[in-house]
Amino acid sequence: MSCVLLSKRIDAYQTGKQLLAKISVDDTSVLNDSTENIITLVTCVKNQPDYRWCVQARQK
Predict the structure, then answer these.
(1) What is the pLDDT of residue 6?
(2) What is the per-residue DSSP string for the chain?
(3) What is the spatial distance between Cα 40 and Cα 8, in angstroms, rounded to a whole number?
(4) Residue 16 zone, left/alpha/beta (φ > 0; ψ -120 to 50; rest)
(5) What's the predicted TM-score (pTM) here?
């Protein structure tokens, strides 16, 4: 099994594909149901309480 990192959010750091995105603290859309196998990590942004970092990996 292998995985690929993905994100569909603005403000993303890019290296060919979006891997890491800064999202609003209220954005729960990254947790919506999916038919794909996706793991999502959401964590705080230092000194920016209105934002969170979001990283997702999808099974290839």
Answers:
(1) 52
(2) --EEEE---SS-EEESEEEEEEEETT--GGG---SS-EEEEEEE-TT-TTEEEEEEEEE-
(3) 12
(4) left
(5) 0.65
